[in-house]
TrEMBL record:
The gene is ilvC. Mg(2+) 2 binds at D194, E230, E234. This is Ketol-acid reductoisomerase (NADP(+)). Substrate binds at S255. NADP(+) binds at Y28, G29, N30, Q31, S56, G137.
Amino acid sequence: MINIAKIYTDKDASLDALKGKKIAVLGYGNQGRAWALNLRDSGLDVTVGLERQGKSWEKATKDGFTPVKTDEAVRNAEVIIFLVPDMIQRTIWLEKVKPNMKKGADLVFAHGFNIHFRMIEPPADSDVYMVAPKGPGDTVRDYYVAGGGVPVLVAAYQNVSGKAMEKALAVAKGIGATRSGALESSFKEETETDLVGEQTILVGGIMELMRASFETLVEMGYQPEVAYFETINEVKMIVDIIHSKGLSGMLRAVSDTAKYGGMTVGKKVINEDVRKRIREAAERVRDGQFASEWVEEYNRGMPTVVNGLKEVDNSLEQKVANELRDLIERGKPKK
Ligand SMILES: NC(=O)C1=CN([C@@H]2O[C@H](COP(=O)(O)OP(=O)(O)OC[C@H]3O[C@@H](n4cnc5c(N)ncnc54)[C@H](O)[C@@H]3O)[C@@H](O)[C@H]2O)C=CC1
Ligand SMILES: CC(=O)[C@](C)(O)C(=O)O
Ligand SMILES: [Mg+2]
Ligand SMILES: [Mg+2]
């Protein structure tokens, strides 16, 4: 056993810290929808706050909420949960939340970006805590409905009441996370590791490694569908085994040929140079360079994100994904 992180489960958490309190969930997107539904199903009093009528408003209404404007949602709330995009949070905080919130209401985050990089300066009399899911919003909802939960990191940044961690654990329980585990962390550790993770592996690394392998096979004249099954579709199956049994379990589930090839060639592809660049990316996150760059990109209308999405939408790998979707869905286990 390593036993470094403090891990809380259902028996360590109680919903009592939040029972009867008015909770405003700001945003109804990836995480917002999942949290609002899970917290409501856990018996808590949730109001969805949104900036305007639109897609999120419709979705929330369809799910049985009566959304209200952000300023109205925070006016009565004792707990305010920020689930709008990170780059919007500062403006919403300054224009809608700060001027209208109850004195001393809790400020809750699913990611530490705005607090850690000082884009939001919380009032001194509020508890400020975080419950950061280590998984996508849809998974947070799906696991909860199926009786499980996605693990989270919990942290307190300001603990005026002395009960910030108790309340963070109540939120974690309410979204189902303590059925799995809530790991105690800090805003700094969560923010930095989350950014490094999504850049180097979860989003950037996995996508570029898939594309590099796929495109190489296609360039060499192999059929795109065959390349897709091998370099993109099968990743889920391998990752599922890693997910339940770790890397050792995965190695034992593949052939000796794959073990040998994987162990020798893997280290040549992901070599010291790649590790050096992962380290560089992590240093840029830690010293705030990435955050400044992202704020600037956002303020220019996110041209890199907009164009990048278009490029992927039109890529051969996405066209093959669209072509094979029915086949892939047909083959999935039926419950
Ligand atoms: N996407 C995910 O699965 C994860 C997200 N987080 C964190 O959760 C928080 C929310 O992220 P997501 O759920 O991805 O957000 P999202 O992008 O899905 O949020 C969309 C919601 O924000 C509202 N919104 C979008 N633009 C707006 C604007 N200009 N003004 C007002 N409202 C606007 C939309 O109407 C919608 O309700 C962030 O702090 C993020 O880092 C944490 C873990 C995983
Ligand atoms: C899904 C998640 O946890 C990410 C990748 O960190 C995010 O969406 O920001
Ligand atoms: Mg994350
Ligand atoms: Mg993230």
